[in-house]
């Protein structure tokens, strides 16, 4: 049983994570360590976090839909392979240690930072890409593996969805964010089922965290539309740099030096 004052802290952490997740990604790098700090085992924290992610994206999808940015039909094309991949990834996550994967993902995030800095116009304006049969096959395979990673650990999956949607499908960053939250909304319930089946979900903490995530998502959708692609690009770059440092162990190394 937590002390009463920890509940507002959980909501606050969720608010920050929901905002970051809606504009960029990797809010789970904040919520997962916090849930473990509260005493949850890593696998239970991973499952509990999915409740907040699910409800957060209900709010995000509704917000982007109201602003007429999100197309359900287009989102379904990317969602189906991601859903299949997420189910496979969630099944793996029940037993597999993710440390090696986290470091690999950290290196990939560094590469993504370089791509955003090198060609910012692709992220701000998007680019028309002809959807040939081979291109569609490529996107299906790509989003299957992104979904697999999302089902496995969730943290950082928003970055890879954004990269696939911007660089692979040609969407600008605002539209890509709308499609991203729609994809995550569809596959998260299926991934959550695996954690529920193996009793790796703390429902009370998940719902408290979700209250914060949903508030952050509500703010994020409005900022995404009102402030535009350039602001989102700045948030995305900052989130990428911090996440890459965390996943590669650089933040822990710096902490040992300066503390």
Any overview of this molecule?
The structure is a single chain. This protein has one domain (6-258). It has helices at residues 6-23, 28-37, 42-66, 72-93, 99-118, 120-125, 133-152, 157-168, 173-197, 203-248, 250-258. It has 259 residues and is an all-alpha fold. The two termini are 31 Å apart.
| Quantity of strands, as a count | 0
Low-confidence stretches: none
The major pleated sheet works out as: none
CA-based shape: globular
Fraction of helical residues: over 70%
Could you tell me the mean pLDDT? 84
- How many helices? The count is 11
Based on helices, strands and strand pairing, what is the structural class? mainly alpha
Along the chain, the helix and strand elements come as HHHHHHHHHHH
Number of domains: 1
Cα distance spanning the termini: 31 Å
Percent of residues in beta strands?
A: under 5%
Q: Any idea what the radius of gyration is?
A: 17 Å
Provide the descriptors you would attach to this structure in a database record.
mainly alpha; 11 helices; 259 residues; globular
């Amino acid at each position: 049983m937590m002390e009463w004052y920890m509940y507002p802290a959980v909501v606050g952490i969720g608010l920050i994570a929901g905002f970051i997740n809606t504009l960029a990604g990797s809010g789970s790098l904040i919520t997962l360590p916090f849930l473990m700090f509260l005493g949850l085992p890593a696998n239970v924290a991973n499952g509990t976090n999915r409740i907040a992610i699910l409800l957060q994206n209900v709010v995000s999808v509704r917000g982007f839909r109201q602003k007429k940015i999100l197309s359900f039909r287009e989102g379904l094309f990317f969602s189906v392979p991601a859903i299949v991949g997420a189910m496979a990834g969630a099944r793996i996550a029940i037993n597999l240690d993710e440390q090696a994967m986290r470091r690999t993902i950290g290196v990939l995030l560094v590469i993504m930072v370089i791509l955003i800095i090198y060609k910012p116009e692709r992220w701000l304006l998007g680019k028309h890409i002809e959807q040939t049969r081979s291109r569609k096959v490529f996107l299906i395979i790509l989003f299957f593996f992104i979904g697999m990673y999302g089902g496995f650990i969730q943290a950082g999956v928003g970055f890879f969805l954004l990269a696939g949607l911007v660089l692979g499908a040609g969407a600008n960053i605002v539209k890509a964010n709308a499609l991203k939250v729609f994809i995550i909304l569809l596959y998260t319930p299926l991934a959550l089922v695996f954690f529920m089946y193996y009793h790796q979900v703390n429902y009370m903490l998940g719902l408290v965290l979700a209250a914060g995530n949903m508030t952050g998502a509500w703010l994020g959708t409005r900022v995404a539309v009102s402030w535009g692609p350039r602001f989102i690009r700045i948030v995305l770059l900052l989130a990428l740099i911090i996440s890459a440092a965390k996943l590669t162990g650089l933040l822990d190394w710096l902490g040992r030096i300066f503390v």
